[in-house]
Amino acid sequence: MSPAFRAMDVEPRTKGVLLEPFVHQVGGHSCVLRFNETTLCKPLVPREHQFYETLPAEMRKFTPQYKGVVSVRFEEDEDRNLCLIAYPLKGDHGIVDSLDNSDCEPKSKLLRWTNKKHHVLETEKSPKDWVRQHRKEEKMKSHKLEEEFEWLKKSEVLYYSVEKKGNVSSQLKHYNPWSMKCHQQQLQRMKENAKHRNQYKFILLENLTSRYEVPCVLDLKMGTRQHGDDASEEKAANQIRKCQQSTSAVIGVRVCGMQVYQAGSGQLMFMNKYHGRKLSVQGFKEALFQFFHNGRYLRRELLGPVLKKLAELKAILERQESYRFYSSSLLVIYDGKEWPEVALDSDAEDLEDLSEESADESAGAYAYKPIGTSSVDVRMIDFAHTTCRLYGEDSVVHEGQDAGYIFGLQSLIDIVTEISEESGE
């Protein structure tokens, strides 16, 4: 039996950790939640779990750090809002206790934005009674969610204004529509299964955006094939169609989501997967250019580091035998926040003053140059359909390298190189 569906022993009277929506999720359909500042939480898929526990050492720098497994269940807070709480598995306190939760706020404050009737769970009733009583309400709610998701499909590129005063990063949590979509769907699925169970295994992974003040995130679906070997005929046909009708078939990569901070207008731009599927090869190139453009100018200093990382990842994957990363994504992340360039002999007080002024128009007299944590990051994510001969249980065993994924990487390298050369670098 899959470990995700075994009965789980949760240590009684242990302190749980409130899970929040991860506001920088720009693609995918699996709900990613924020465990704390540096750690994310997502539903455990046995194949992905196996990948993280067995991946080659040289690939670890290109994947999020794996931090273990927790049990997640939904509960009500004092305002009767439904929320997700993570607990350590029995005898495994170390995972939860060793992670810093000092930045977690009270539940009522965190969940105030979800104070809606359709999040309420009446715990005094049995799950069976609750499901029966709310069946009609659930159907209405499901229809409403579908309408919201249809709106998301139609609004494939969105712009949201961010106030210039105050900390920009603290305001991002109110604006990402895709993360809210995934979070709502996860709650809906768990509530519909309330009759059967209220314990789920989730894996803990490194939060790749935590080092950036204003994360700009690009989610790229990699490879010329997306369906796993275990996919049904219908699922495989659907994935093949999506690849054939997008840039996946032509260049082995397509846009699955994007979040970019436009410094010129003070806006956040979101592009979802529905738009990404419609892009031509030229449209894909333009989207990539847009990702590295802050509304004022192209962030040319990021292109070289991106190319270096892509080339290194390509060399690593060319050495991997039997792996197939079907439906996996590649994340590219950098900081939309820029800092003024300062003289090397500036003292600490001057540096602190400039840091405070950097978000203000008065700092425009300085030449802006990203420093410190503004470097770009490239990571592979989502391995629910990954296969390898080391797994032992798969009916299909592949030989050699993942040519489709490597083809996509080479296409990406070629296009970023074109952008760099055309921009005069």
UniProtKB/TrEMBL annotation:
Q: What is this protein called?
A: Kinase
What family does the database annotate?
Belongs to the inositol phosphokinase (IPK) family.
GO biological process entries: inositol phosphate biosynthetic process; phosphatidylinositol phosphate biosynthetic process
Keywords for this protein:
ATP-binding, Kinase, Nucleotide-binding, Transferase
Q: Which organism is it from?
A: Crocuta crocuta
- Entries under Gene3D superfamilies matching the protein: Inositol polyphosphate kinase
Membrane-spanning parts = none
Q: Give any GO molecular function from the UniProt entry.
A: ATP binding
Record EC number:
2.7.-.-
Fetch the InterPro entries from UniProt.
IPK, IPK_sf
- Report the top EC class in one word: transferase
Q: Which GO terms describe its cellular component?
A: cytoplasm; nucleus
